[in-house]
Amino acid sequence: MNVTAQRIEELEIKFAYQESTLDDLNAVVSRQQQQIDRLEILCKELLDRLRVTTDGGPASAANENEKPPHY
Length: 71
Hints:
This protein is mostly helical. The chain is built from two helices and no strands. The chain has helices at about 5-55, 60-65. It is rod-shaped, with a radius of gyration of 29 Å.
C-alpha cells in the first residue's frame, strides 16, 4: 500500500469516528431539548397555579375570611 492510499484510509477511519460521535451528540442534544420542553411546560403550569393561589383565586379567597390560629 502506498503512502497516498494509506493516508486516504486513515482519513476514512477518522471520518467514520467523527460521524459516529456526531450521531451520538445529536441524540444527546435531542433528548435534552425534549427534557427542556417538558420542564418549560411544567414551570408554566406551576406559575399558573401560583398566580391563582396568590392573586385571589379560590384558595386565597377562602383564607382571607379565616382568622389566624393565634386569635
